[in-house]
Amino acid sequence: MSERGTGALVVRGGTVVDATGERRADVVVDAGRIVGVGPSVAAPSGARVLDASGCVVSPGLVDLHAHLREPGGEAAETVESGARAAARGGFSAVVAMPNTEPPVDCAAAVRAAQSLAVGACVEVAVAGSITVGRAGVQLAPLAEMAALGVRIFTDDGLGVQHSGVMRRALEYARPLGVVLAQHCEDEALAAGGSMNEGEWSSLLGIPGRPAAAEEAMVARDLALVRLTGGRLHFLHLSSGRSVALVREARASGLAVTAEATPHHLCLSDSELRGYDPVYKVNPPLRSARDVAAVREGVADGTVDAVATDHAPHPRESKDEPFESAPPGMIGLETALSVAYGALCLPSAERGGPAGGPVAPGWLADDASPRLALAGLLGALSWRPARIAGLDAPGGTDGGRGGHGGPVAPGSVAHLCVFDTAARWTVDAASGSSRSANTPFAGRELVGRVRHTVVAGEAVVVDGEAQR
Amino acid sequence: MNRSDLLSVADLGREGIVEVLRLADSFAEVSERPVPKVPALRGRTVATVFFESSTRTRLSFEAAAKRLSADTMTFTAASSSVAKGESVRDTVETLDAMGVDAMVVRHSSAGTPAQVARWVRASVVNAGDGQHEHPTQALLDCFTLREALARRDGRPPGDDLAGVRIAIVGDVRHSRVARSGVLAYRALGATVVLVAPPTLLPPDTSSWGVTTSGDLDEVLPGVDVVYLLRLQAERIRECLLPSLHEYSARYALTAERERRLAPEVLVMHPGPMVRGVEIDSAVASSARSLVTRQVRNGVAVRMAVLFRLLAGAAADPVLVPSGRAGGEP
């Protein structure tokens, strides 16, 4: 992280929400830290004022799951463009997935990835892969990478298929103070499929990836965590039964964590009816019943975090025939708004398609909200910060750390200012990501990130990236 | 521009299917003429755009276009820019820029014709997309069935298949013919039972309005039509079947099973047949087999589909043949 932009700031007129509660307060920032929080705190003269009236001021958001594509996929995204997209989504830190080309599976690759992150407008924490080349056969040098500050290891894009390899990875990583993160899909059940297996795949003639492929690996990994005492995080849970398995395991005292994506909180497999590859993602969009169950999982805390699985792809690859188009959708700039609509608003107030036909899967069910905004901010900020070790001062590799709050004097000044009343229509072309593969293009969302402060620097002001 | 496409049988609905069948009656008559050609689509261009190899469907569409006096263009993936790495989108946009009026598209991925329809101005006809649909096959099957039932009952062809009981037997899961067929037969009032081992049925047919069975012998006494699907040997490698022998024993229309059928029961197959696997040779050539009629009717039905999409409201109904008039010299 750079040292620029650390002049004094006042975030004025908002309602502060963090893990300690909610209060009407201005926030004064100086030299990268929060120096005052209160209803009438004196601001240093010459401080820049960020208007937050009508807004919620929270700790900066933390994304456990972003594909920034660099190196190797610069046509889709770079660390710089992805970080800018993250900032516009209210994030102060993101975890960059290691499935780059080449993958981050050794110390040299970690150093290279970390050097790309220097100067990005949010903190970019580098994740490493569990196995060499993400091939699922041989353990990557987890300790060497951990020594460089890597805290999350994953072969994401693929799960570790071999039970024995996963068992040894969980055991080996135990003393390193790191977390292994699993993409749960048993490829023996999922390979060759391009959407959720069920009524819609049957009608559309698209080979399916059954929910059972995810549930089988979740169940297997829970057994392996019991066996090894390893630390495991479940990426992007999409099936209601997976959530139920995790709920039961946690009730029995198992220390696992889990995340869900914004898209799995609001889109179901009926979206695939037009064969638009923008809706193709792994794990796939599931049934409306699964969507409701994943929402419930976030609401009751079984699912700790909402994470984007931001997966940029250039236009030409998403213009491929459906079955050969790559899976994935971008999400950094829309995550909070989408999750806010899905979880915190009654269905009548969620926005929806702008000018288009009503798509049945879109935010279609419960009339009453499931979660207060503070609960959602926990899932997008302080809980993922803790999972990734980004809450600690100093962060993971000489970064700022201190993510997830609290919004209190002495904390590193990472802030997200969210205007809960704003309504906006997503325009993929005007996003900061190099890619435009968002399923929310053209849809109206409620609530929008207005300002983002990272380590005392206002990196986004009134929705505009400042660098 | 008021363009129309044929991507799914569902695009037609009952009314559209009936319209195509009636038009096909006229075009079947054209096909019987010494010079089987009408000027209905003179000056229009129809491109067959096949990213997956096919001979019979492509030739059938090209014959249909030529009998309507349309110009035709042929694109096949093996001999083309696709082999050089050009994308589907660039390929169809290039053809579109040449001023094609209709593209007849086949691709191994479900939904490709629907995607192409979003990219081009031309009307798009789905000639088979992955495991999704093959609408003109279903239409020609309806046409053939309606003709055969009329002959059987000694009456002119009706518009529907009300009360007709159809068993579709075999690899329904991977069959675009079955998906389009179910939609078309149901729209015309037939009842459908899908017969296959569960590994070859789609995962969830609860919204299809059909019944399913794993026992062909139990189903056969209650049906009017046995529609057999091709079985590919690769299903064994995919662990969907133990052996072709076991499949044939339970699901093939063998000569022995054929002898037990009532005389008026009809047998259909979309081709290509694997004789000895899903159907015995003698059954395929028997009097109850409509296989040859299916192929013959394909041209007239595809003429009807192309005519309906391209002639549109501006069409001069005089050009629709009703007798000898209108044929080209």
Mean pLDDT of chain A: 93
CATH superfamily of the largest domain in chain B: Aspartate/ornithine carbamoyltransferase
Q: Which structural class is indicated by helix and strand composition of chain B?
A: alpha/beta
Radius of gyration of chain B: 20 Å
Q: Name the shape of chain B in a single word.
A: globular
Return the CATH class of the largest domain in chain B: Alpha Beta
How would a crystallographer describe the biggest sheet of chain B? Answer: 5 strands, parallel
Key phrases:
heterodimer, A: 467 residues, alpha/beta, TIM Barrel, 5-stranded parallel β-sheet, 12 helices, 22 strands, 25% helix, B: 329 residues, Rossmann fold, 4-stranded parallel β-sheet, disordered C terminus
TL;DR of this structure?
Chain A has 467 residues and is of the alpha/beta class.
Layout of secondary structure:
The complex is a heterodimer of chains A (467) and B (329).
Chain A: E1 9-12, E2 15-18, E3 21-24, E4 26-30, E5 33-38, E6 48-51, E7 55-59, E8 61-66, H1 79-88, E9 91-96, H2 107-117, E10 123-126, H3 142-147, E11 152-153, H4 163-173, E12 179-182, H5 187-190, E13 195-196, H6 199-204, E14 208-209, H7 211-228, E15 232-234, H8 240-251, E16 256-260, H9 288-299, E17 305-306, H10 315-318, H11 335-344, E18 352-353, H12 373-387, E19 415-425, E20 443-454, E21 457-461, E22 464-465
Helix pairs in contact in A: 4-7, 7-8, 8-9, 11-12
Chain B: H1 13-31, E1 45-50, H2 56-67, E2 71-76, H3 88-97, E3 102-107, H4 112-119, E4 123-129, H5 135-153, E5 165-169, H6 176-187, E6 191-195, E7 211-213, H7 216-219, E8 225-228, H8 234-237, H9 244-251, H10 255-260, E9 266-268, H11 281-284, H12 291-311
Parallel strand pairs in B: 1-2, 1-3, 3-4, 5-6, 5-8, 6-7, 8-9
Q: Your description of this structure?
A:
The complex is a heterodimer of chains A (467) and B (329). With 467 residues, chain A is of the alpha/beta class. Chain A has a single domain (60-400, 431-447), classed as Alpha-Beta Barrel (TIM Barrel), CATH 3.20.20.140. Helices cover 25% and strands 21% of the residues of chain A. Chain A has helices at 79-88, 107-117, 142-147, 163-173, 187-190, 199-204, 211-228, 240-251, 288-299, 315-318, 335-344, 373-387; strands at residues 9-12, 15-18, 21-24, 26-30, 33-38, 48-51, 55-59, 61-66, 91-96, 123-126, 152-153, 179-182, 195-196, 208-209, 232-234, 256-260, 305-306, 352-353, 415-425, 443-454, 457-461, 464-465. In chain A, the strands form five sheets. In chain A, strands 2, 3, 7, 18, 19, 20, 21 and 22 form an eight-stranded mixed β-sheet that branches. A five-stranded parallel β-sheet of chain A has the order 11-12-15-16-17. In chain A, strands 5-4-1-6 form a four-stranded mixed β-sheet, with no helix packed on it. In chain A, helix 4 packs across helix 7 (211-228) and helix 11 packs across helix 12 (373-387). Chain A is globular and about 65 Å long. Chain B has 329 residues and is of the alpha/beta class. Chain B has two domains: 9-133 and 297-319, Rossmann fold; 135-293, Rossmann fold. Chain B contains twelve helices and nine strands. In chain B, the strands form two sheets. A five-stranded parallel β-sheet of chain B has the order 7-6-5-8-9. Chain B has a four-stranded parallel β-sheet with strand order 2-1-3-4, sandwiched between helices. The longest helix of chain B has 21 residues, at 291-311. Mean pLDDT of chain B is 92; it is low at 316-329. Chains A and B meet through helix 6 of A and helix 4 of B.
